[in-house]
Design a protein that fits this description.
The chain is an all-alpha fold. The chain is built from 2 helices and no strands. It has helices at residues 20-27, 33-74. The protein is rod-shaped, with a radius of gyration of 30 Å. The termini are far apart.
Amino acid sequence: MAAEPNPYQSPSTQGSMRSEESLRMEKRRPFTLLEFLVVVAIILWLVALIIPASKGSRSRPMRNSLQQEATERTGE
């Protein structure tokens, strides 16, 4: 009795003993330009969200120290 071919395997891999990792490497295709641009847009969007928050947290202590210096100079 002959073994029936697996319908879920491609014809080029039927009957051969290839590892799953080598099959994955063969099927990998490069990124398309559209996929690359989407990734770049998401990264830029995240950076645009983070920059104002980091500037705000940096300027708050500076403002407090300036107020403290002004208070010390005026003697209040």
